[in-house]
Batch of 4 targets.
Target 1
Amino acid sequence: MLLIADHLAKRFPNGVEALADLSFALNDGDFVSLLGPSGCGKSTALRLIAGLLAPDGGAVTFLPATPQMGFVFQEPTLMPWADALTNARLPLDLQHVKRGDANARAQAALARVGLKGFEQALPRELSGGMKMRVSIARALCSFSGAARPKLLLLDEPFAALDEITRTALNDDLLRLWREDGLTILFVTHSVAESCYLSERVLVLTPRPGRLADDIALPQQGERAPGFRLSPLFLDCQRRVSDALGGAA
Amino acid sequence: MKKLLDIFFPLAVALAVLGLWEGIVAARQIPPYILPAPSAILAALIANWSSLSASMLVTIAVTLQGFAGALIAAIALAILFSQSRLAERALYPYAVILQVTPVVAIAPLILIWIGFEHIDRALALIAGMIAFFPILSNAVQGLKSTDFNLIDLTRLYGATRWQTLVTVRMPAALPALLTGMKVGGVIALIGEVTAEFAAGSGTASGLAWRIVESGNRLEIATLFAALALLALTGILFFAALSLLEWVVLRRWHESARVYS
């Protein structure tokens, strides 16, 4: 077990009740998608887990201890004045890692997301997909070699990207998950994306978000090239779509 | 070619206006104590160059002192406001009051308090008071406009408030701060001139006083020459601050990008 979200509730000062009684658990190494209609509190749940918001009810418990956390937002959220290397290095700079070590780790992270040679590029010189890759590299830099589990939280990171870029980044994310032993909680409103990426899909009700269904998917490990056209994938989508329809 | 045209057209307009001015003054035989011809103004500028250029340097030096003081004070206060809502609520209204109170009304008081023996300090303070608010309001706006997700990221990675300020908030505030500096720099000059007018005779020695002095002596050509140098000083301030803005922002900010 890595984390338990226990009866989470959140109401904003403007009166909007984003979440009501959301409970689920994550195991170390899981790839879980949080799926639901717009405004159902998916992003709020992610921020509660990251500690960026305080819940009005319930609690998030990490077991046995708080994991290393990386966060990727829907927008790349880069510093426009800084090059790709400096952006990727941000978590290391904030932790006072020596500049030489930080640069080496940031360079390695950029290379792993396919941006070798773009270290000096400014965000405005990069495409939308490349900016998102820098954002993922920055999240990777927040993980050290320590034995603590690594929890990567992604808030609809590929929603604004074209289909080709999105597909490529989906595969890159799966590769990083496998190679680094990450635990991933992935917020999306795409049924297909949740089915392609995850081992479990948590379906939320419309606002205020509650857990409507917790669907375990059979696919594990590397996706075969024709997986998106396979009966298994289509069946997964049907199950998740039915759950989403039921929740609405 | 395009750059040459950018210079040529404004120059052509200036030459046309000056030519028309010269022609009207000559044709209508307007007395020089009412409206001197551009050629007479140029002659007065050359004849009085040593005193006018010395006054110009005084005006520039005093304005720069005021501007530098305003810049330091405004940035320090903006940082305080960005870190403490309480401080902002308590102090911001007074910054607004300072801005809306006409400087002409408070200049005599400041001159009395600081003393006419330290006239340059008083003029610099008044210039700084004028420049202060645009820099402060833009810096506060810039510090508050940082991408909230970026701030959240720094929190997630355990940054201190100081780290967040230096790493994210201050660079993000640069475009707004530089805009405030451009406005503040130019109106600091206006403040300095206004203060010189308020100081009266026998104290200040900047360009504004040369204007007053020339007016009193009906040396209108010299008055125009001083006025031209004052305008030139303002243009130099604006150009220097625009250059600074371009140097700082040209690589990354949309405002510094050039479209054809």
Target 2
Amino acid sequence: MEPINILTSKAVPLPFPNIDTDQIIPKQFLKRIERTGYGEFLFFDWRYDVDTPDIVKERPDFVLNKPEYKGAQILIAEKNFGCGSSREHAAWAINQYGFRAVIAPTFADIFFSNAGKNGIILVRLSEEDVQTLLERSTKNPDHELTINLEAQTVTDEEGFHATFEIDPFRKYCLLNGLDDIGLTLRHKDDLDKFEQKHDKDVWTAPKAS
Amino acid sequence: MSTAPKTLFEKVWEQHVVVEPAGEPTILYIDLHLVHEVTSPQAFDGLRLAGRKIHRPDRHITTVDHNVPTTSAYDRLHIVDQISAAQVNALRKNCAEFGVEFFDVQDASQGIVHMIGPELGATKPGMTIVCGDSHTSTHGAFGALAFGIGTSEVEHVMATQTLPQSKPRTFRITVDGELPFGVTAKDIILDIIGKIGTDGATGYAVEYAGSAIRSLSMEGRMTICNMSIEAGARAGMIAPDETTFAYLMGRRFSPTGKAWDEAIAHWKTLPTDEGAVFDRELHIDAATLAPAVTWGTSPGMHATIDGTVPLLADAKTEADRKSFERAYEYMDLKPGTPMEQIAINTVFLGSCTNGRIEDLRAAAKVIKGHHIAAKVRAMVVPGSQAVKRQAEAEGLDEIFKTAGFEWREPGCSMCLGMNPDILQPGERCASTSNRNFEGRQGRGGRTHLVSPEMAAAAAITGHFTDIRKWKQQEGEQR
Ligand code: SF4
């Protein structure tokens, strides 16, 4: 996972609530066994028309297809972003498309955790602030935002300034690009001790007989 | 540990804390990790790349469900879609290489991952259970703490049998009273989601309590916990009781003899203590409930069968208004349309929400002596091999087939359409599954979530039909 701190970029506005992971990456792309190559399928059903399985056409009116938003690294959406299926493919697709941050009033739990493990900053702002940013990015596709993870702020050149909350440990991992498994294995002794005791309790065993 | 009254959730949580490092998430021990083909290949790869093993293969159970064809035993062994076949083969190879138990397509224990855990007796009260699948919340019906995780976490559990977790808050939803005639577990949970919203329980572990919940079978309890995630909950739980113990007794992985007695003694300590405090509470009077049908593209968008597609004016917020407008268009429905007038052309009976034996029995009872409407295509996909066998032993398959239903092999099937069972654009489906998202059952497909009884009645009449009147017409007593 790549460390991240300050991100300045234009932003793609997606002004809908409850954007679920089925929309972020539809099921047909979940059959792949690789961990990369999902960016091109991000929001597939919104992005493309499929006349026959072989003829895929971009929908010019969908925001990701508009040339003026190409290269944006920030996505802005409404509440409960990432709800539904636990598929981490959604976080992979967002990341591999080139987004490093998503701004929304709220995020669904599992997506929240998946995003963190893929170096994506999730910024929770008030409904009001999100509306302001959505409007600015809709009106002016070149409108740039700066997310400062260390300072926990979102700013723009028109005077927008908001702070956001983030769990200190998650922040530390994002800033340093840390791998979770390695972090947990620092507690190997505690784990061994726990297992010795826990294994004696028959009701904890999936296969008791 | 303190002696203050505790909730079921708190007890299970505390019993699984490995360590609570200062300023970091708690490291929580995971008793059972369920694995399926879709969310695991990249995790196995990750282990291989790092030269890691599975820390506790004995705490893993694996099966194939999402991708498998349901048409015939032959088709399952010879998957035509090469990408699906590659994913299933990857799991076979990974399980052999890493030494974990695997229930392959034709194994007598194969089925949807959330069906087989309970059926095998692997899912038990007081355990922590995870799976790379959001509907892992199903297992909470046994008083386990069970939740869905992403693939990085799948790898983490494989490598360490733990997960770093922040503690969710607690939320008790109490449903008291007697369920009215024709109202099922599915209708309870749809009502709850409608009341609190699809993000209403985000950040919470929900406990379902009250006499209406207690009166449910394990199957009904699983239906409720299954859809907790549809309200955004981290987990849904129901305290174990005699119904739970009776279900578990004698199952393949259940304890026996002295160990069984010890387990029961422990399980009886789990229910929430008198006086324990929840961060949030909701009370529902069962008598107010009615059969539910979703009309929109999120499980919270539902009406009762005697209601109508809501008007734009019914939207409470600006965000809701936008969702309503989008949903009318996607679902091709006009505001104000009575639910009973909505005609369907497909019926899907199955999934980890309602693919259990009790669901099949309930639906069979409705259709017995009838035939599905012209132009309706209806299929039954039992959730597991065990359910399929049981149903066939009871002759339910014959009732379905005589009524014009297709009788399929077990798997996820049209719940998400990763295998060939999908809706065509514009098709309208009465589905017993859990998600009516755009394109969930096939691009352009329109999904209405209902109970098995309501799906069965719709199959016969060709449109949504009030099961309460149906049962009266049939002269049935409950
Ligand atoms: S039946 Fe549907 S919800 Fe359940 S595990 Fe399969 S795909 Fe997921």
Target 3
Amino acid sequence: MKKSIIHKVFYAHAPEIVWDYLTKAELMEQWLMKSNFELKLGHDFQFATGPVPSLDFDGIVYCKVLEIEPLKKLTYSWKCGPGNGQITIDSIVTWTLEAKDNGTEVLLVNDGFKEANFNLVIFNAMNQGWLANMNKINKILNEKENGSTSA
Amino acid sequence: MRMLSEKSLPINSLAEHFDMSRPAVSKHIKIMYNAGFISIEDIGRERYCTLKKDGFDELQKWINYFDNFWKTKLKDLETLLNNKIKKS
């Protein structure tokens, strides 16, 4: 099973130009997606694309800037879900730039895919289980209380 | 769930592995069944639980989707950069 996405591309342009296209929201929008990205460590931002119903993906990618090494490296978290900020997939995107004679070699790695879904669904299931039990207890207590007051 | 990852098991033999009553085990199984983690099938006099692998394939679907996504986007960036330079 494939767990990491790795693409290496050579662009016949200087690292400064490529870096701008990776780190300026207005330029990123032209080829990647619309976002409120800022080149600030710890900055939370979102990308917005069209929804993908087959994946139960609402088209919003939730990210946080994790690492900045100007002109060389950029890392952000990459999380998606069905909507309302719920996360089912959790991963990391890392851009690495390497200056070459007549351009830039760009390495994109999207990995660390975690089954956020798995834990979340278990959590929800358990949570609902508890909620049902607590509702039951509540009902019993209420009935008891009502019973005793009416008696 | 780890026990079920290897093979399907009857509820009774699953229950033997846990320090809780049979009804308590049934309740847990019902929660996992409702959450879509396991399927339940009657074979003979036993009820067999099977782990559903859909959840795991789901992750693979996401990875494949983003693999293509990045491939396309990186190509778009190349086109954009090349056009930009030509114009200027």
Target 4
Amino acid sequence: MAQFFYHTLAGQIILMLLETLAVLVPLLIGVAYLTLMERKVMAAMQRRRGPNVNGPFGLLQAFADAIKMIMKETVIPAGANRALFLFAPFLTFSLAMLAWAVIPTGNGLAVADINVGILYLLAISSLGVYGILIAGWASNSKYAFLGGLRSAAQMVSYEVSIGLVIVSVLLAVGSLNLNDIVLAQRHVWFCLPMFPMFIVFFISALAETNRAPFDLPEGESELVAGFFVEYSSLAFGLFFLGEYANMILMSGMISILFLGGWLPPLGLAPFTWIPGPLWLIFKILFCLFVFIWIRATFPRFRYDQLMRLGWKVFLPLSLVWMIATAGFLMATGLLPQVGGVN
Amino acid sequence: MLAQLVFYVFAAVLLLSAAMVISVRNPVHAVLFLILAFFNAAGLFLIAGAEFLAMLLVIVYVGAVAVLFLFVVMMLDIDFTQLREGLQRHAPIGICVGGVLFAELIMALSHWTMAPAGVSVPLQAAPGLTNTAALGTLIYTHYVLLFQACGLVLLVAMIGAIVLTLRQTGSGRRQNIEKQHARTPEETLVLVRVPLGENVLEQGGFLRPQTSYYDTAVPGSYGSTGQPAVEKEETGA
């Protein structure tokens, strides 16, 4: 049996498919229930009940929403570029899924444990802007186009600070492998020594996923619904799922870079009984809760304030922090050596 | 076998999309084909074992440069009939330039000889070194001056771009966040004690101001010219 799976091409392909399914199925269920969690948590924060009719505690609400979305008619605007119009939501959704290939859920437990994992994540998340830009253009609508342009400018701006924050983490790790990044946090999670960068990364993640208070691309009060104003039915559903999958992905990145991935908070007995993947899920859930908490708390930024924050505050701050980190590691001799985990 | 097949697929799609970039009519489609070409080039890097370069190609070119391309091209207002009119007039110049380039290509290629397979020896990195680390040690030790020079060129290009697009906006309103944060209530708020019941007129059970807004408005401001005509008619009726 092991012979078949590990040493024949067909076996390896089957194994790869199974691994992919083992990541994608929980992810899709997670996305479905994240929409419910958001509504429930926001309801609780606003002293409402939230969805409570479909199933116990409204647990079937996610499926009701999905069925409603699938049953609707797909409307394609008259002047739209058909092929690109339908391609955009597909791209957004599949990119959100693709990134999960490298996320380690345990020691070495990733679909693809590659050496440049963090660069892969950065590359995939920087591609996310295309779905939105293409959707905005192909819709042939002013609102959608403005939403798309805003989103592109916003995502490119915040990627810069995300990249610099990642560099400061990598300086302390000495490897681009996500597994090594988690293992480097055995003694202390990076959110403690790099607390300011943790906050910068979190806020940039909000901007990168177009979440409140940076949800200007949607801006329903001025742009109706932004880049997906012309979308309906399943095409809209794919955008929606893509946004939530991106939220989970960003939470996963925050957990891996700053909250110690699958590692328990302390290497002591009661904590080590809980398996690693569960710790990762707890941390992702914590980040998602904060995402929703922020949405329920803060009003939307104005666009010039958003750009100012990205370029004039976060960029210099993360640049200075990066140089300071390198200087500190150099001075104390803690700089990790080539090819080794510290 | 599989690697070869994947190589040919990537190479074929790369060449095809590169040809589409210069042949499709719609400029947005052209940029999208360019992105597809970048992607396939990254795929070729991956097959060659240069995973760091592949990821960098996607991050820098696809994730940043092409986004700005697309950004600009989407906002262009292109009239295709106008483009076709120009074709007739500019055709001779185009043919001349094309002919020169083609002649250069032929001259260059006539002296080109393929090296035999045995001659090209791929550089061997130190064992156990990822190609990220190998590239890093090479760039930051042997080629550090060239690296710094590249950085300077980019810096000059960046400053040039900023200078070219900088516009002196004298009349525009700018927000000074620090100034706003430094304000105190004493500077901006004045509490005025208003005597109750003064300058008020009772009219049909309601208390109304004695003078209308139109009488007290600042001269020259909206409303100081008197009530709008429509409202006057209504009150008259």
